Amino acid sequence: MNFIILTLGLLIGSFLNVCIYRIPIKESISFPPSHCPRCSTNLKPIDLIPVISFIWTRGKCRYCSEKISRRYPTVELLNALIYLILYLKFSMSILFIKYAILSSILIVISFIDYDHQIIPDEIVIFGIISSFIIHIVHNFKGDSLNGLIGLIIGGGLFLIIALITNAMGGGDIKLMGMLGFSLGYKYILLITLLSFIIGAVVSLILIYLKIKSRKDFIPFGPFIAMAAFITICYGDEIINWYILKTIS
Fold first, then answer.
1. What is the pTM of this model?
2. Angle in degrees, CA 229, 231, 234, rounded to 5
3. Phi/psi class of residue 182: alpha, beta or left (left: φ > 0; alpha: ψ in -120 to 50)?
4. 25, exposed or middle or buried, with CB in 10 Å at 0-12, 13-18, 19+?
């Protein structure tokens, strides 16, 4: 079963690459078919095998020898690894499906935000719709109420931060609202805290290594995504640890 989950993650990861590339430039994710951006040759099925095709062609287009970004196999492997981690934790359940969909959405958002400093509305809307469907299947009344509170708290907190500091963009606000609706108010509070901790640590490392300067803009979406994944996997443990630490 692990092999099936990994294969599914790789295949969906290949589709995520299409979304990452096409959505910011307002191009359809279904048409035209996958093609080389340099020579425009439509790729054959043998060119689209996740990771394997990249290794087989040594990272180059078979038709024009244009170099292919290492990001493509990276996204495929990352999605597959995340799916396996989620499966090992939640087995084949509605929660696995929910978190797998959400994690793939967060991968797309992270890379688009890193490249273009935007979080497209259509991805956030898709995340809310997919979460609403999961709420219906899982526990409509409880999940929906919890989700609405989470949406208000998540989006509201970042809206206040944006108004006070001017450090957050509208995309971050919408992303936190989506995560709040999907995961609920308890988790969104933890995601908020973790995102700032991760953001501070990573930013300091980038500045120390002189990859970024203090004046450079660093997208916050990837930090939110990392915080969300940690919360999905270890949120209950972190919250319970904090409660025990507080009362002891």
1. 0.92
2. 105
3. alpha
4. exposed
Q: How far apart (Å, rounded) are the C-alpha atoms in residues 161 and 147?
A: 21
199 contact partners, CB below 8 Å, separation of at least 6: 218, 220, 223
Instruction: For 73-123, write each residue's pLDDT tens digit.
Output: 999 999 999 999 999 999 999 999 999 999 999 999 999 999 999 999 999
Residue 69: DSSP 8-state? P
Give the distance, in angstroms, between the CA of residue 197 and the centroid of all CA atoms in the same chain. Answer: 18
Q: What pLDDT shows up at residue 141?
A: 67
Angular region, 36: left φ>0, alpha ψ -120 to 50, beta rest: beta
248 pLDDT band, cuts 50/70/90, is low
Examine the pLDDT at 184 and tell me if it is beyond 70: yes
Q: What share of the chain is helix, strand, coil (3-state, %, to 5)?
A: 75, 0, 25
CB 134 within 8 A of CB 94: yes
Residue 129 has a CB neighbour count (10 Å cut-off) of: 10
